[in-house]
Amino acid sequence: MSFDVLWLLKTSWQAGILAAIILLLRAALGNRLTPAWRYRLWLLVVLRLLLPDLPASRFSVNEAVPFPVTAPLPVAAPVTPQVTPKESVATATMKPRWSWMQWTTLVWAVGAAGFAGAAAFSYLRFRRSLRGARIVNEGELLELAREAAGEMGCRRLPVIVETPCVTTPALFGLLRPRLLLLERMTASREELRLIFLHEFAHLRRFDVTLNTVVTGLQIAHWFNPLLWLAFRAMRHDRELATDALALAHRNAADRRLYGETLLRLVEGAEPGARPVVGMIDTSRHLKERLLHIVRVTPPGKKGVLIGGALILLLSLTALTREAAESPTPPTESPGAAAQLAAGTAQVAGFKLTEKQADALEAEIAKAPDAPENIVNRQKLIAYSMMHRRAGGKAMARRSELILWMIRHRPADPFSGLPPMGPDKVLEPQLYADAAKAWEEQLKAHPKNTNILMNAARFYLTKDSPRAMKLLEEGLALEPENVELLTLMARLADIQSMATPAGDEQIRAAAPTRLKLWERVAKKSSPERRMIYLSNLALAALDAGENARAKAYAEEMLESAPLQAAPTHPAHWNQGNAIYTGHSVLGQLALRAGDIEGAKRELLLAARTPGSPQLDSFGPDCTLASQLSELGETEAVLAFLKEIERFWEGNRGRTDTLRELAREKKPFPRGGKSMAPVLPKAVKQGE
After folding, report:
1. pLDDT tens per residue across span 150-160
2. What mean pLDDT is reported for the chain?
3. Beta-strand relationship, 178-182 and 159-163
4. Average pLDDT for residues 237-266, to the nearest whole number?
């Protein structure tokens, strides 16, 4: 299902908040707000429900009461790679999983179809009942109607029909509305004139059209009781406003006669919903209508000021969304071009041959300060990283190249990339010199967030307390900087990985880690958010937030097909999404005591097409380790055989894991963490 049900729910939420505000204002202001202005306020609710998006504002009511569900990715069909039968390991038949979003869409569609069907049936049945009704083509009644239409400013007179199908005068029809009168209706000429004025007031304000729109919106938002209450109040205010318009230039005697006419019509009115805009909508508020009829006066300056001010205030605060909801796509970032250039230089450096590296060194020696040699230095730094164990000419100049970049280009995006980070064990002297150079730059430029970020990246895996301090300083300068927030969230992940599996420290730090990733995801583009879903799911898993972990995992699987196209910015992440999504769902199944479900998810995870990360470093085997410890050897062995398909950097490690699986032992923890731990019932095999 591709319908964006979350947009509908969010729209309904925001319109409900606006409706609640208007209901409170009606109650607080009472008669100080005229019926016409009360009715105009409801038009803001209709407008909110029709608008596809809202302008951002720091003063939005929707920021104070935000929609409680994270903004969605485009919905796609869930990914369920097919697992071929493998000996006795094949678990229960794997059926496509429906996410909560798809179930919600289905429930909404069933409800909307039911209400739409009922409305269509009512409309068609009433329209059929009008067949054969007498059309008024001549006579005093038609002349009186023309006079009333001219007085009300209606250019076109509707067809007037006398029918026994109504008990009060009403308008029916959207494109060519008809005025329905009671068959053999007994009323004086003045009473008829007042009835015509009321109905033509509806026409003048396009109430028939608006009533159709409101009916459609009520069908679409059938699940929101606040909007049902709002629309009922809107219809009541519509009748009050119509009464006021019809009696705007009438004397006290006419107002009295108008009230008496209403009372007489109410006595003959029959209950039952009809698809019409009538003079008697309901008898429930008749007393209030009669009181307003007596008080009808032209709106004064005070009433106009109050009504106009409320319309303006609500438009600025309730017809806007929170400013933070509009993420800045990476392509609009000022440093995006520089980041792309840095990444390109890194990849080019990885691919250099020794002969090409020698040629670049020669070019640098000829013109050390030439602008093009900045990129050449970056390529050589990346080259030296790939060959640092082998030594050679590039390795001899590695220290000089790295220190040159730190001292001359500390804010360059390349200075924060992995090739700029010396290995603390293999290159202790270079690490010490580079750390000293970074501290000098930080002292010289304490408020440069780009330098703070690059220095934090340098320390990220080597001195996490120092990295955290730098990131905190950067966020103090720019609290909404997404790159700083992302680095802080990654640092939290790194610290989690360095903690033994199941350690209480992981669970204690996980809620903060989850909040960081949720802040990052909210401020990121949809493409970046797809990539961060794995971080969100794993952080929620560690935090014990099972429902959120499941929602993020399912969203990951829904997003995977969107990343399949080679042109998609997150194309490389598709395999990660499939693997991590199923892995998280499997760990959640174990927590619920569902071992068969966990085995099924393990095999689905192994069916990933792979990714640069999975192919090189291998998959996180937490779920396989947990199942191995529970004695599910066959499922784990099938998993290990399957991941060898893409794990190019395996180097025989799966053989070691096979031995552990046969001995029903857990695997060594390498990679992402995950936490906790199986319920006692599962461990004991209950």
Report:
1. 888 888 888 88
2. 81
3. parallel
4. 82
Cα–Cα dist 447/450, whole Å = 9
Angle at 272 between CA 266 and CA 274, to 5 degrees: 100
Q: Write down the pLDDT at residue 226.
A: 93
pTM of this prediction exceeds 0.85? no
Both ends of the chain: CA-CA distance in Å? 39
**542-562 residues labelled b (16+ CB within 10 A) or e (exposed):** bbebeebbbbbbbbbbbbbbb
Long-range own/partner contacts, residues 176-179 (CB < 8 A, 24 or more apart): 177/203, 177/208, 178/130, 179/145
The CA radius of gyration of the chain, in Å to the nearest whole number, is 35
Residue 203: which residues within 8 A CB-CB, separation 6 or more?
Answer: 152, 154, 158, 171, 177
The C-alpha atoms of residue 583 and residue 620 are separated, in whole angstroms, by: 9
Gap between the Cα atoms of 482 and 336, Å rounded: 13
Q: Which two tokens stand for residue 578?
A: 């499939």
Q: List helix spans (H) across 247-392.
A: 252-268, 286-295, 301-318, 336-350, 354-366, 372-386
Alpha-carbon gap, residue 610 to 646, rounded angstroms:
6
Q: What is the DSSP string of 188-202?
A: -HHHHHHHHHHHHHH
Cβ proximity of 544 and 676 under 8 Å? yes
Tally of CA atoms within 13 A in the half-sphere of 87 that contains its CB: 9
The C-alpha angle 112, 118, 119, rounded to 5 degrees, equals: 90
Task: Give the three-class secondary structure for 161.
Answer: strand
Phi-psi region of 112 (alpha: psi -120 to 50; beta: other; left: phi over 0): alpha
Distances (CA, A) of 518 to 249, 444, 499: 60, 33, 22
Paired residues of 56 in beta bridges: 321
H helices then E strands: how many in the chain?
A: 30, 7
